[in-house]
């Protein structure tokens, strides 16, 4: 790494320097995320680089008025099923800060606090208290009183439904008309009456993608014989912090050089990566098979391509899973150790997005509920090779911002071919990356998400008010 760039970093972006230091002493403060991942849950970049004295609202919507302004002085209770560094709770925290920024009064309760993540819980709660979010126990009288007083109650994820009966008891019916239920799950075991029996009576449901919303409509009708409330699809947006790095050429170059050096990847090599917790549902095994197949195709056809690498970010050897060992033995068996790199789970995805050339989103079965990493990669001008499933199909434009392949074993060869395509057609790859970035600027920024959420909150408040008035 060139000296002058470090100097630049030190003066311009202290956090970036701090980050590089952390990286280089490989004890990167990796917040390990619990193994149980949901389709929507993912480790997000929550490193807080924003000076806390600056009002958040100044950041989110340049000249246009903040769409959430009408929430000023509204009392909102946020109910999180847990507090960890996974997608669901972090999104709810982002909402908390958006609402705080316009002067809403925000209360937060966490239903389930696992003992082993005590430190993470403590630091997240601390962060919220610093921003004026009031945190208290999910089971006390305070929670009940606040729910009764609140203008709006946001339940985060399907499992939070249990809290309603457990804590509110006889008051449930009074609270339901002001509940907005934010759902990020798409797995069978969430379709339990235990969790979701109150769905028909809440004011609204907010779901991350059209396909997930449709899935909920189907399953609640067919399996549970209950009706969904008013349902809104709200695509997520990229955080301001992530966009700052993505749009900073120098920061990106420094991170790219640094990460590549740490992995032993040269600047002219081409890197394909999956950034997701390692699990069968995320399809790292099938990706490695495709990668190996693409190497064979290149050899057979004697194609001229740069040295190719596959990076798997999201590894957790501590968990000692069978799946993780399977991946490693496959790599050894195929003798591709010099081309496949495993990186531990980390919250800071930006350096890896800066370092790679193509993001692979290989989530299997019904795919991702949304898959925030997809829009994060697009912000870094990366094309995406994704499964034609779930939220990915609502983000990636096949042939324009990336290429889609089928989920399952039948997707292995198509993905291998797509890998070869992007390795051999540099121009096409770069153009797709640029188109992806344009799409993010059009639709997937924080202020787009805030706009969409504002529309939902307005309607939910209006409905709950007319309910109270009548
Ligand atoms: C929902 O049900 C309809 C009709 O049965 C079906 O065509 C559609 O594929 C289902 N959608 C999902 C996401 O399950
Ligand atoms: C990754 O995790 C493993 C297992 O927890 C640990 O032994 C290793 O040092 C970690 N690697 C880095 C680079 O932090
Ligand atoms: C994506 O586009 C390619 C052609 O560019 C096509 O062969 C493939 O079937 C498309 N896949 C999906 C899922 O639409």
UniProtKB/TrEMBL annotation:
<protein>
    <recommendedName>
        <fullName>Glycosyl transferase family 1 domain-containing protein</fullName>
    </recommendedName>
</protein>
<dbReference type="GO" id="GO:0016757">
    <property type="term" value="F:glycosyltransferase activity"/>
</dbReference>
<dbReference type="Pfam" id="PF00534">
    <property type="entry name" value="Glycos_transf_1"/>
</dbReference>
<keyword id="KW-0328">Glycosyltransferase</keyword>
<feature type="domain" description="Glycosyl transferase family 1">
    <location>
        <begin position="257"/>
        <end position="438"/>
    </location>
</feature>
<dbReference type="InterPro" id="IPR041693">
    <property type="entry name" value="Glyco_trans_4_5"/>
</dbReference>
<keyword id="KW-0812">Transmembrane</keyword>
<feature type="transmembrane region" description="Helical">
    <location>
        <begin position="15"/>
        <end position="37"/>
    </location>
</feature>
<dbReference type="Pfam" id="PF16994">
    <property type="entry name" value="Glyco_trans_4_5"/>
</dbReference>
<keyword id="KW-0472">Membrane</keyword>
<keyword id="KW-1133">Transmembrane helix</keyword>
<dbReference type="InterPro" id="IPR001296">
    <property type="entry name" value="Glyco_trans_1"/>
</dbReference>
<keyword id="KW-0808">Transferase</keyword>
